[in-house]
Amino acid sequence: MIVRTTEEITGTDRDVDGGSWRSKRIILAGDGVGFSFHETTIQEGAVCDFHYQHHIEAVWVVEGEGTLTNRETGEQHRLSAGTMYLLDGHERHTVTCERQLRMFCVFNPPVTGQEVHDETGAYPPPAPAA
């Protein structure tokens, strides 16, 4: 059994500051459960481009308001508490934050916590299992 609080993660290497966003990585690949689980906040006024080429991400919005734009189709969706979106097609997307967003995110395969977004907004592919 794993029990963690965001309080104990704050200020550790599991607390990743991306400038206009912050991700508290509650569960990571090293925990060995097949997914990672994060609390992510995006600052009001931020416009963030992401593209998870090697991961499926599910996002549950619990606070704030914004817009999700599929950069491949131009389709836009309102984001607010109670909205879920699933990036099951590795879509290039932009999150525009109007009021600070707080979201819970699940990644499969799990992230290690050491990934850095590249110039396209993507994480590198996961390392092969040993």
UniProtKB/TrEMBL annotation:
Keywords: Lyase
Molecular-function annotations in GO: ectoine synthase activity
Family, per entry: Belongs to the ectoine synthase family.
Pfam family, one: Ectoine_synth
GO biological process: ectoine biosynthetic process
Function: Catalyzes the circularization of gamma-N-acetyl-alpha,gamma-diaminobutyric acid (ADABA) to ectoine (1,4,5,6-tetrahydro-2-methyl-4-pyrimidine carboxylic acid), which is an excellent osmoprotectant.
PANTHER family named in the record: L-ECTOINE SYNTHASE, PTHR39289
Entry protein name: L-ectoine synthase
Keyword Lyase included in the entry's annotation: yes
CDD domains found in the cross-reference section: cupin_EctC
Name of the top EC class for this enzyme: lyase
